Amino acid sequence: MLCEVEVERKKHYFNYPYSAKEKLKALNLLKSSTFEFVAHRYHCTIQTLYRWKRQFDGTLASLENGSHVPLTPNPREQTIEEKKHIQDLIRRNPNISLNELYGKLRVNYGYSRNPVTLYRYLRKNNYFKNLSKDRKNYKPKKYFTPLSLGEKMQLDVKVVPYDCRTKEVPFDMKFYQYTIIDECTRERFIYPYKEQNADSTCDFVIRAINYFGYKPKVIQTDNGQEFTFLKQYGKIHKFDLLCEKLGIEHKLIKPRTPRHNGKVERSHRNDNERFYRYLKFYSYEDLVRQMKAYLKRSNNIPTSVLGWKTPIEKRKEIMLSDFGVVE
Fold this sequence. Notes:
45% of the residues lie in helices and 9% in strands. The protein has 13 helices and five strands. The chain is elongated.
């Protein structure tokens, strides 16, 4: 174990102030040791020991740390009038942002200080600390992952990065990766398209059903126009018509909450790291070919959420337990 002096030395590496007792111990050690030895032992300078020795009058109180507050006010400090304007604006607008507050002060009260000065004043007076207390932290609810094949799938679209194309591909052409993932097995199907619209969505879902060999009960998507219409349109989307025809429930997540489609969103992040970082394609057909090879590879990568099984192994395990056969 570390001795008491070593512990104190470690503390002072992080700018802890010396207490009066520590100073007294150092001065007592000076009676039998040199200034160089004590300074090295207590991790301070020789000049600091001389200052402590001058301060010491035989009482412990003389070694107490004094206040570091300046005796005279800073001449460039915020004036009383400026402080009042700031406090009045915050009182009338409790949720006002720093930029808006600075703008109102500058336009209405001729505030000429730097925005950083205003920020430091607000931080010193715990404005941001009080503001964070009012904000409710997001607490995720417990999510029950389906236990059988095809209970629920997540569907989303990702733009293929421009950096992956070569000079042979026209720069004004865009490519989109459609992705669908079975929540139970994490098995995915991906396919590229030149357009992001309802026709591509319907074609992709039919391809996905042929790939998996079964229809999902629920397909969950965001509120993009390739999946649904806004309420004011008063029309039925082509994808909804396909789902109704196939007996599939189309579930929409809450707007601006991509975490509700977290499994497919996370798979897109993995695609960036495993595939698009190294991809170079010279045509749409070449992209289809390379994406097909990557799909086979990605479905054979083990993951911790599956007990370090691959999606293909997880699918075989469920089919064996549910139906007693494996495709």
